[in-house]
Specification:
Blueprint (H helix, E strand, L loop, with lengths): L3 H11 L7 H8 L32 H11 L1 H22 L5 E11 L19 E16 L3 H64 L5 H36 L24 H11 L1 H22 L4 E12 L17 E11 L4 H70 L8 H32 L8
Antiparallel strand pairs: 1-2, 2-3, 3-4
């Protein structure tokens, strides 16, 4: 099954709380198994010792490539940036209900006004050449006491969005790690193939030279060996292409740009350490570790919070209203009579219980139904994701089983063809066999050896695919 539907699922989950920004909130408020034997044909890894030389600085193991990728990959950095955005939005929603305060103020030049409520020497038209300064400041706000769940539900939905973004970082890490392994093992295969072709070419060159030196050499047999030698040379270009592409991919993922030296360890490609176990084990692991499944679970929680938020918007907000104001105009007479409204010289403050109720009940009920259907859609998406992940795990498991079978079969074929080459070579050294008889066993050995190397790489990548499908990278140990 293609991963495209699941990637679409992730895109839907990342946008599930698109309406939960601070502006929308303000509207809502009103304010380890035993190790498997090494693959046949591959050198067993030696245990590290104190006398072993340290690897060169420009030699990058798979673990080192993966570690560099975690810090250098643009895809991972983008996913991390999206997570930080969701965290910032969560922090804003957390503090927004407690910061519903406004401060206003100003300063001006005003004319002189004298008098009381009973008598003033000034007229109603306050135009005077005697001017003075005046200023005022006021603070107003509400501390929420009871919002019927608006604060709690908004925070729950924002937390679900942040959790979805955090799990998206894990999803991208699995994808990028698989691409790194594919490039890394491609380079390892290219190195082994180059060594194989070099050794076969040298052995065939020696046989051709020996046949050329013989006066009774059959020209047809000689042409046959030279033709096969040309075929081997043609394969070198394919190997170099794979090596260049793999190296370019590794440099991109790890951030080691040219002309800095970059190489992989000079050792044969080897298979995974762990044996393949029952498919049910991997299906169970996917239910626990797969980021997409965990994302959709967090998405359901966020949708549930959105439903509760839509319902809470049907009720009023109750809070503690606080106000403070101060104004001073020295050139305007201060009115001390409490029954006279003085807007130029005053000190006012107060607090009390206030409420605000938006009576859009009919639109509010429609918002509740909309949120409920969004929740139903996300739950259906969860069932689809469970089925899709199961198909992906089964497909990866089938690929791994096929790779195991081919690795074992080609390993046996390689061993037999190698014995065939050794037998013919020994007979040639004592003169009982002719050089032309080396072509068929050598062709068989090169073909089976390369097929074995390819099968080992396919097995490594199958395990990597299985790790990506289950979300458990412990499966991909080499």
């Amino acid at each position: 099954m293609s991963r495209r539907p699941l990637r679409a699922l992730v895109g839907a989950l990342l946008s599930l709380a698109a309406g939960l920004g601070p502006q929308a909130f303000a509207r809502a408020q009103g304010t380890t198994p035993p190790a498997a034997p090494a693959a046949s044909g591959a050198a067993p890894s030696a245990s590290p010792s104190a006398d072993a030389p340290a690897p060169a600085a420009n030699v990058y193991s798979l673990a080192r490539c993966l570690a560099l990728t975690d810090s250098m990959s643009p895809q991972l950095r983008q996913a991390q940036d999206r997570y930080e955005q969701a965290r910032a939005q969560l922090d804003e929603i957390t503090w927004l209900p407690w910061t519903q305060f406004t401060v206003t103020g100003g300063a001006a030049v005003v004319p002189t006004v004298r008098g009381t409520a009973l008598y003033s020497p000034n007229t109603d038209i306050s135009i005077s050449s005697q001017l003075g300064g005046a200023w005022r400041v006021s603070v107003d706000g509400v501390v929420p006491l009871w919002t019927f769940g608006k604060i709690t539900n908004s925070k729950r939905a924002a937390e679900g969005q942040a959790n979805v973004a955090a799990l998206d970082v894990e999803r991208w890490k699995l994808l990028v790690h698989h691409d790194v392994r594919r490039a890394y093992f491609g380079v390892m295969l290219a190195h082994d193939a180059r060594y194989l072709l070099d050794q076969a070419g040298k052995q065939l060159d020696a046989a051709i030279a020996k046949a050329d030196a013989r006066e009774d050499a059959d020209e047809v047999d000689l042409l046959r060996m030279k033709t096969y030698r040309a075929e081997i040379k043609a394969r070198v270009g394919e190997v170099e292409k794979g090596e260049l592409v793999g190296m370019a991919a590794l440099r991109f993922f790890t951030g080691v740009a040219a002309p800095a030296a970059f190489d992989v360890p000079d050792e044969p490609i080897s298979g995974p350490r762990k044996p393949l176990v029952d498919e049910l084990v991997y299906l169970a692991a996917a239910r626990v570790h797969r980021p997409e499944l965990r994302q959709v679970r967090e998405g359901v929680k966020a949708r549930e919070a959105q439903v509760d938020l839509a319902k809470s918007r049907m009720f009023p907000d109750i809070g503690l209203g606080v106000t403070f104001g101060y104004s001073n105009s020295p050139v305007i007479a201060d009115q001390t009579n409490p029954f006279v409204l003085d807007n130029t010289n005053y000190l006012r403050y107060g607090a009390g219980i206030v409420f605000r109720w938006n009576l859009d009940l009919l639109p509010g009920s429609a918002r509740v139904r909309y949120a409920e259907w969004q929740l139903a859609e996300t739950r259906d998406l969860e069932q689809y994701a469970l089925g899709g992940v199961g198909v992906e795990v089964t497909t990866a498991y089938a690929g791994a089983k096929d790779a195991v079978t081919r690795e074992e079969a080609y390993g046996e074929a390689e061993t037999l063809s190698k014995r065939w080459v050794a037998t013919i070579s020994a007979a040639m050294s004592v003169g009982t066999r002719e050089e032309r008889e080396l072509v068929d066993p050598l062709r068989s050995y090169i073909t089976n050896r390369y097929n074995h190397l390819q099968a080992i790489m396919d097995l490594d990548l199958a395990y990597s695919q299985l790790a990506m499908s289950t979300g458990d990278e412990a499966i991909a140990e080499y």
